[in-house]
UniProtKB/TrEMBL annotation:
Domain spans labelled Leucine--tRNA ligase ubiquitin-like: 1072-1183
Record's keyword terms, sorted: Aminoacyl-tRNA synthetase, ATP-binding, Ligase, Nucleotide-binding, Protein biosynthesis
Protein name: Leucine--tRNA ligase, cytoplasmic
Organism the protein comes from: Perca flavescens
Role this protein plays: Aminoacyl-tRNA synthetase that catalyzes the specific attachment of leucine to its cognate tRNA (tRNA(Leu)). It performs tRNA aminoacylation in a two-step reaction: Leu is initially activated by ATP to form a leucyl-adenylate (Leu-AMP) intermediate; then the leucyl moiety is transferred to the acceptor 3' end of the tRNA to yield leucyl-tRNA. To improve the fidelity of catalytic reactions, it is also able to hydrolyze misactivated aminoacyl-adenylate intermediates (pre-transfer editing) and mischarged aminoacyl-tRNAs (post-transfer editing).
Family the entry assigns: Belongs to the class-I aminoacyl-tRNA synthetase family.
Lineage of producing organism: Eukaryota, Metazoa, Chordata, Craniata, Vertebrata
PANTHER family xrefs: LEUCINE--TRNA LIGASE, CYTOPLASMIC (PTHR45794:SF1), LEUCYL-TRNA SYNTHETASE (PTHR45794)
Limits of the Aminoacyl-tRNA synthetase class Ia domain: 20-103, 180-763
GO MF entries: aminoacyl-tRNA deacylase activity; ATP binding; leucine-tRNA ligase activity
GO biological process, one term: leucyl-tRNA aminoacylation
Amino acid sequence: MTERKGTAKLDFLRKIEIEIQEKWEKEKAFEQDAPTTVGESTNKNKFFVTFPYPYMNGRLHLGHTFSLSKCEFAVGYQSLKGKKCLFPFGLHCTGMPIKACSDKLKREMELYGNPPQFPDEEEEEKEQPKISDEIIIKDKAKGKKSKAMAKSGSATFQWDIMRSLGLNDQEISKFANAEHWLEYFPPLAVKDLKLMGVKVDWRRSFITTDVNPFYDSFVRWQFITLKERKKIKFGKRYTIYSPKDGQPCMDHDRQTGEGVGPQEYTLIKMKIVEPYTAKFKSKVFYSSAMKGKNIFLVAATLRPETMFGQTNCWVRPDMKYVAFETTSGDIFICTSRSARNMSYQGFTKDNGVVSVVMEILGQDILGCALSAPLTSYKIIYALPMLTIKEDKGTGVVTSVPSDAPDDIAALRDIKKKQALREKYGIEDKMVLPFEPVPIIEIPGYGNLSAPLVCDELKIQSQNDKEKLAEAKEKVYLKGFYEGIMLVDGYKGQKVQDVKKPIQKVMVDRGDAMIYMEPEKQVMSRSADECVVALCDQWYLDYGDAEWKQQANEVLTSLETFCEETRRNFEATLAWLQEHACSRTYGLGTRLPWDEQWLIESLSDSTIYMAYYTVAHLLQGGVLNGQGASPLGIKPEQMTKEVWDFIFFKTSPFPKTDIPKERLQRLRREFEYWYPVDVRVSGKDLVPNHLSYFLYNHVAMWPKDNGKWPQAVRANGHLLLNSEKMSKSTGNFLTLCQAIDKFSADGMRLALADAGDTVEDANFVETMADAGILRLYTWVEWVKEMIANQNNLRTGPADTFNDRVFASEMNAGILKTEQHYDRMMYKEALKSGFFEFQAAKDKYRELAIEGMHRDLVFQFIERQTLLLAPICPHLCEYTWGLLGKTSSLMKASWPVAGPVDEILIRSSQYLMETAHDLRLRLKAYMQPPKNKKVESKPPAKPSHCTIYVAKSYPPWQHSALSLLGKHYKSNNGALPDNKVIASELGALPELKKYMKRVMPFVAMIKESLEKNGPRVLDLELEFDERTVVMENLVYLTNSLELEKIDVLFASEADEKVKEDCCPGKPFSVFRSEPGVCVNLVNPQPFNGLFSTKVDIRQGDNGDSIIRRLAKVNRLIKDLSRVKLMRYEDPVLGPRRVPVLGHEEQGKLTISNKSVFNINLEEKRVTVADNGLTVDIGDSLVYLVN
């Protein structure tokens, strides 16, 4: 970004914001309580919006701000619509990251001192970046890096990460205590959000974990209830596990691999079928354990949906494999590393024991015939690939050359190189007949994406590692997110939607199994390589059929604002199974019935919106809940029965020493505010948090659908200046940095403009800068209008442009209201600010007679209200400038008056006509094209004749009539051009116009799509001539012409009649001859000088004054100009004017005077009251 020259406008906005925020704080503008009595009425006229509480291990950044701005704008709008609005804001501290970071700081101080003296970078062993074997399309619900890692940029040590947050060494050492994070970052988040001006009721804010006794009690109550309702079960779940230590290996127990979670693969079973190859047969022959058994090569894939395209499988000739016996008695062949993982996942008879029946080299498996699931080839073969690695997967790789660049490169290699085949004993029949199978259509890459991309990148062999990495980057992600299946049973479905169903089909048939291994290598502190093991854990049974059905019921009535969000929910609810809700490490609430376990962060955050409704009465704004309760209630008094009474309206009054009226008040708050009207979040939370949100609400209130969520608004991620936000690249902004740089309202304007859909939005810094200028200019204009209001026009507001402006304002209000209702803030900003301002600018330009005072102030008030949800500080300030005594926060949405659509379209026609006239004038002024002679451009025209048509030329009339007839009979559709052309060609009156007819039809069709069926009308809906006549002064002035005549096309020649049709006027420019005279100003010291002006036949005083004003821009007010002639046209100009008696010897020219010219003699006379006199070569003008 270019460096700013000054910050005066920014400083002005920031000053206003601070003043306005202090005013709101003083007025307690956003503190809302339920009414004292709440009946069973469903129309409570309230609006309760929430945002997933952000994690408190750093400052809030622009990504958080983008999502929460949607809540903020919604509250601003709904409040104007007269609803009682509640926007509470909690702060999340549950989970592993804070604890892991604090423990890491402890370790760094133990190892390197306090403050730590870290080794130089050269001394550290740096892991060389390597080209990844596979691009993992991650489920965002699993295996996330800690947010501290995500925010750290390129910092290696936790201490450095803390320094990057602006902390000094003395402060950092305090963060070795996990509780210090809970005391430090939450108040900063509150402070930053207050600077943004969010309409939050801060009394209801809280932090999570057992540090907060009230919230801890609430979560314990939730989990006791879920367990009673059989939603929580105990059983085996996948977790990172250290066989050496004999226990799960959590982040704090790891030497390497912090933040790494289990990665799910589909284990494809490829049965080795007879006849065996000689090498393999000799191996099996000597192994009694393998005789008569089903033997499978097992391959781990992340893309089960691509198995339809298998042409072979790959093994590495020199790699050591093991054959081991599974629980079913089958033999699996894979690497010993993967077999070790499988042994902890129920694949073997004894947990953790691999029953190896044979060790075998890859070269002994080559050429084996295989029966593989889903592929169209009955038999495929095991072929050699030299690049398979041992540290990931099973060492056996499925081959799908249609969609995997590595596979097509290797397949082409072995097809081309006979010597390679011979070296490994591969017969031609095992390779040559196999061609890639089209299974997925990818936009831009067709149905054989891998061969296409490999050809584009000119990949010669499987050794072109870098090019293959680039090819995978191009194909894999696009294929997964945009690919469409081509195979039977799944044809037309998105790849990402069928992955789970296809996996399930194969698993159910026994063709595949679920297999897990760590995403990356994890080493425990005891130097043991960790595996993924099935361990006993408490889990929420989201796979339960009845619970799933209820969650789908919630989804049916849920407003999702866009179909993609709904489809994402449907896909998630379809595949969602058990979710482990317990952890042994981190911060949080302990499981009430088994306190060795902590409730993890995605499980204690599903119904806390209910806690918001009562938090202010329990905690009173003290974030950790350890202050005095406003109702005098103690945490230990909050028993299960007390919580039941508050949240379940059928629960009886509990045995408690809490006074009844206080508990009833808590219940009343909940009953009034619930359900959640909208929850706003990033789209990446749909597969986890937002789905759990639906599940848990229906579990807690199964028979009370009035408590179920009403709407979820999911948005895309936020780019910063079209690039991903990243600390390491410096393309990153925290919330407080953004406010410092752009002001709160400037930032909010750019956030609203960033985007509305589930696609990625884009915060553009130049837009934010332009926003500052727009807002500043707007408020300055308001001040100018208030100062000059007595100079604005009064009386009836009934001119053409008055009526248009009033209608455009009303239309703008209605349009903006629709966008706000749909939470489409980019569109609301467009219609409610950019277009609204454009309507005012157009009115100012067209209203030659001056803007009307009532309309101007109506506009200022309405504009303030339309923009208020997005830029509340400046709008509150403007509201005050208008003399409003109450806060804008108590104002109402403007009521739109009638909208005259025809009038608005007639104004649009006027603007299009003015634009067309300018283009025609520009073309008229171009010199004629003559290559031989250099031509001079023609003189600027002085006059114009505009021809308007009442009806279309006959040939166009016939074509339109036919199109109109088809449109009505075909339910609003037109036939193909061939049909239209043949029908029009049959009409005798169109024969000579056929070359022009079809282009005309094409233009009408295009216009029909844009403007609707009115383009087929044979006449305009408004009087074209009247519109032009009402705006003749504007058109004349804007084109700098003397006069415009408006005639009907029927009065013109044939060419004009042919080229002129309704809505498309035809113009002819011309220059009227004139006689040049001097216009003299004898007034001293006023900067007005003598000038020359042409006088034309029929001119009057007014037309000459207007012409003078065009030449002399210092003349602003034409009514103050007086035109005079000399009594003696010969001697008068020679006499020296007498100071103070400038009118002496001169006579006034009245408006009734008419000038006549004699071009041959260059003489001008003026006729007034029957008297005609010669004016000589000079006239006089005086400005009063």
